[in-house]
Amino acid sequence: MNAENLMETLRKSQEPKGYFFNKDREMVLALMESLLTNKNRYGYMACPCRLASGNRELDKDIICPCVYREEDVRRYGSCFCGLYVSKDWNEEKIPHEYVPERRPPAF
User: Fold this and answer.
1) What pTM, to 2 d.p., does this model score?
2) Could you tell me how far CA 82 lies from the centroid of its own chain?
3) What is the mean pLDDT of residues 72-93?
């Protein structure tokens, strides 16, 4: 699978749930490449914006889409990486605020 294929596969499953890819296509494709790299490296698509341990159980909260995405998109219009955003965020109807890291520092 390549980045384009992954993007289309994820788009079909996530848009009906209200999660859209950032309108910056170049950035999205770079993140798709990183997800594929992590899948090859670890066996799962760990969030490319966070440091994965390589232990699926320890990283289960950051397997994309991470467990933090729903609250981040609801609250800020974007996930931590900026990969998934709301429709309003893409249409610049809401401010593009900094999304703080919410993963506990023990990881």
Assistant:
1) 0.93
2) 7
3) 98
